[in-house]
Amino acid sequence: MQKYSYVGKYSDGGSTNSFYKIKGKRYGFKGFPDRSLAEFAHKAQSVLAAENLAPRVYSVVCKIRVSNYFAESDGKGGMRTVNHMVLSDWGYLTEIAEVYVCYSDDCCGDCANDDCCDNYGVIQDLLNNIEGCGLDYADAHSNNFGYVKRGKNKVLVAIDLGAESVATDDDSYPEVCWDGTDNGYCNCEKCRQSYDRENEEEYDYA
């Protein structure tokens, strides 16, 4: 059984994701607020990973069992910590990248847009290659890049590939539901179809 170590939640363009490291492994589990956001990021990262433009993907979109620690009464007037295994959010296993750090003395802090930075050309090459895969990496800033090892070399890659950061007009990518409600309040095709089916079922039983 794999042991997962909770890293924490982080905000990402308005949505909150989670990440779990796996003991003794160089990959972890990245979770998303709803399944469609996970499916979109999984597809985008898989496409780019095939070209060494993103960390590798090691699983399909799924959920994992993780520890949920909480306090409860010990029956003697005190409290005890209990570990209750729960299912995570939807996500997938992904290679962990080393965080990108710019050491250029000429950098103003925005390597992707500062042509005085020594790393500007490298980042622009990466963005052009991403665009060549049919994706627009709209959220290009230092925190969204990292390094992965390929042989003896370190390769710069994009590490945040959620729908908040990546745009595409390619119909082969999954539809994104921002609310995660799968009902008539969301205008994405998936939710409209789900809502129509629910209404049909209610009508059949009326």
Helix content: 10-25%
Cα-based radius of gyration, to the nearest Å: 20 Å
Structural class: alpha+beta
Report how far the terminal alpha carbons are from each other: 47 Å
Number of domains: 2
- The portion of residues forming beta strands comes to 25-35%
Quaternary structure type: single chain
Return the string of H and E elements.
EEEHEEEEHEEEEH
> Strand order of the main beta sheet, please?
1-2-3-6
What does this protein look like?
Strands 1-2-3-6 form a 4-stranded antiparallel β-sheet, with helices on one face. A 3-stranded antiparallel β-sheet has the order 7-9-10. By secondary structure, the protein is of the alpha+beta class. It is about 20% helix and about 30% strand. The protein contains 3 helices and 11 strands. It folds into 2 domains: about 160 residues, no CATH class; about 30 residues, no CATH class. A hairpin with a 2-residue loop joins strand 1 and strand 2.
